Amino acid sequence: MLETAASKAGTPLVEVSHVVQSFKKNDNNRFLVLDDVSLSIAEGEIVGLLGRSGSGKSTLLRIISGLVPPYAGEVKWCGEAVKGPCKGLSMVFQTFALFPWLTVLQNVEIGLEALGIDATERRRRAEQAIDLIGLGGFESAYPKELSGGMRQRVGFARALVVHPRLMLMDEPFSALDVLTAETLRTDIIDLWTDGLLPIKSILIVTHNIEEAVLMCDRVLIFSSNPGRVAHEMPITLPHPRDRLAPEFRELVEDIYARMTNRHAPGATPGQGAASHDAGLATALEPVSTNLMAGLLEELADAPYNGRADLPALADGLNLSADALFPMAETLQMLRFAEVTEGDIILTPAGRAFVEADVEPRKNQFAKQLLGHVALAAHIRRVLEERPSHRAPYSRFSEELEDHMSEEFAERTLRTVISWARYGEAFAYDEKTQQFSLEDED
Q: Higher-confidence residue: 323 or 138?
């Protein structure tokens, strides 16, 4: 068995101190991705960075590896300030990132070749890593001949062959089907607990709550916009972990509650829905109105009857937390539902929507949209105030880009356009890139 994190607590492999990351948008503005992030990683532990897509987890991973510098703050690797790519680190990516013209053996050897290891030793270590990860006999195969799970195993073997002290994993199972991902997770944990992996620690980025509880000794829960460490949770369950055990389910429920019970600065739980309004600078998730309607109908029906436990709902709908959270939070923002302590509860407005016919549904949606999404209300107000009842796309995109990245601004504006079209709150002409009042077209 590997030494515990506690036994190595005095000698962290990684120390991240008050790291800030932002990217320049123009001469006067920067887009903040990470804000005041501090953490440490000790030998003998698996640490998970758990959070929504876009919360800056992958950015932090690249800062730790030395691939990109932070805007502010400091990262230390084995006590030394990180000034560039770190020796003793390896990374497994979400995509397989294999060279298609190289065999399995050659793909695994390539990192050793870059380190100047001689051919005989390269082959020995590569074959050892391939056998360890369960690909013995496929040394001469090319990536196109392998399944997705086998290609990701090659990625793991390539990361392990250099015998890193810390292995960084950037959502390594998210591109795989459910069964393949589960098998690979289990194999990695079995090798880890048996002390067979030639590494000291693992740092894994994930948005899968059950994956984090299944694999990690500690989970750092990230908030979004900008990314911050909102909570640190120890996972003390012994391996192998049973997903159905009450202790496992309790941890999953706790994390769901912490990730969904988010409030405005200075607010406290229980202050009511007012803290969930979408301000003008709020980045909107592109949740379709069809998905919203489907989730509301599912929530209204048995067995939920208006209230559902989010983990149970995710299982029932075969959705990941990363897919369910934007839907639930959008419904909360529109006051069709309330999310609290890991549960989603249908509001009177949500029930009225479910029970309404097509046109009353649209009217109800427009009312909620204009009442609780500041950007939608702002666009409608500008159109009403202009004699032509028209305004160009750039009028609002430039305004949003003062508060968020160009990518987020476009996604947010496209989202509000889609919602407004459904509710007939205002119209948008793609050809002319003009907003207008619906009754003007």
A: 138
The pLDDT of residue 55: 80
- Take residue 225 and report the two structure tokens written for it: 């916009």
> Distance between CA 238 and CA 240 in Å, rounded?
6
Q: How far is CA 259 from the centre of its chain?
A: 12
pLDDT of 47 reads: 96
> Around Cβ 9, how many Cβ atoms within 10 Å?
13
How far apart are alpha carbons 44 and 38 in whole angstroms? 19
What does the pLDDT read at residue 25?
67
Look up residue 321 and give its amino acid.
A
DSSP H/E element including 317: helix 310-317
Q: Going by C-beta distance under 8 Å and a sequence separation of 6 or more, which residues neighbour residue 18?
A: 36, 37, 38, 72, 73, 74
**321 neighbors 259 (Cβ within 8 angstroms):** yes
DSSP tag of 155: H
Please, which residues bridge with residue 19 across strands? 37
Q: Identify the CA nearest to 205 among candidates 57, 41, 325, 13.
A: 57
**Distance between CA 128 and CA 192 in Å, rounded?**
16
Burial class of residue 254, CB neighbours in 10 A (0-12, 13-18, 19+): middle
Instruction: Using the predicted structure, report yes or no on whether residue 288 has a pLDDT greater than 50.
Output: yes
pTM for the full predicted model = 0.77
pLDDT of 440: 47
